[in-house]
Amino acid sequence: DVKVTQSSRYLVKRTGEKVFLECVQDMDHENMFWYRQDPGLGLRLIYFSYDVKMKEKGDIPEGYSVSREKKERFSLILESASTNQTSMYLCASSLGGTLTYEQYFGPGTRLTVT
Amino acid sequence: AQSVSQHNHHVILSEAASLELGCNYSYGGTVNLFWYVQYPGQHLQLLLKYFSGDPLVKGIKGFEAEFIKSKFSFNLRKPSVQWSDTAEYFCAVFRRGFQKLVFGTGTRLLVSP
Fold first, then answer.
1. Pairing relation of β-strands B73-78 and B64-68?
2. How many CA atoms lie within 13 A of A43 on its CB side?
3. What is the 3-state secondary structure of A24-81?
4. Are the beta carbons of B105 and A42 separated by less than 8 Å?
């Protein structure tokens, strides 16, 4: 069974803080993704990575950065958290190649920025 | 503009009713299509997928979806829903040659016992 884990289920941070969200997958997947999920907006892609040290911007990268130093780990960084970044953050992974494979999702981190 | 449309945002059904959730996309070219489900408090998980071949795809838990290329649609169906089908359902489209899976806004289904 593919397992994607995220470091926290719930997180509360203050405006201006630097926030790290960690994601680890145990299936040796090449591709990893960060989404945010908001009511009425579905899932929106923030960043993705198809290899170690590689990253690509998704649809809403502003205010975020990512790091992928190891194949199994993909971190999302909020350099200076703002209230409009309050959201549910989902990490996903998939096999590599053409990126057409099924994505496996983690449980999500509900981030509140006050 | 949203390129993957799920027109029903909230659906309420009684048990044993039939279900059809609409999904339309606006991309040309070759696409791969997915339906994901998120049960309350659980991970998003794959319900079914279409890559090629038979446009009628069967998934888990009695769900099926039909790809109609001429209508750019991939509607999800189940002949008889159960209370345990209460969840949020997301349609997603992958465009060949691009690198992103684009999700619809989701449909919340509530099945009353």
1. antiparallel
2. 27
3. EECCCCCEEEEEEEECCCEEEEEEEECCCCCCEECCCCCCEEEEEEECCEEEEEECCC
4. yes
What average pLDDT does the structure give for chain A?
92
Q: Which residues, other chains included, contact B113 with Cβ-Cβ below 8 Å and sequence gap of 6+?
A: B15, B83
Residues of A in contact with B103 (CB under 8 A): 35, 42-44
What is the rounded distance in angstroms from the CA atom of residue B57 to the CA atom of residue A47? 30
Going by the DSSP 8-state scheme, the letter that residue B96 receives in this structure is T
Q: B25-84 pLDDT, tens per residue?
A: 998 888 899 999 999 989 999 999 998 899 999 999 999 999 999 999 999 999 999 999
Phi first, then psi, for residue B83 (nearest 5°) are: -55, -35
User: Which structure tokens are listed for A99?
Assistant: 């990126």
| pLDDT beyond 80 at B102 | yes
Tokens read off for A52: 């170690």
Looking at the partner chain, which of B34, B43, B103 has a beta carbon nearest the beta carbon of A42? B103
Q: Which of B42, B57, B101, B105 has the highest number of chain A CBs within 10 A, making it the mutation to test binding with A? A: B101
Residues of chain B contacting residue A41, judged by C-beta atoms under 8 Å apart: 105
Looking at the predicted structure, is the pLDDT value of residue A98 above 90? no
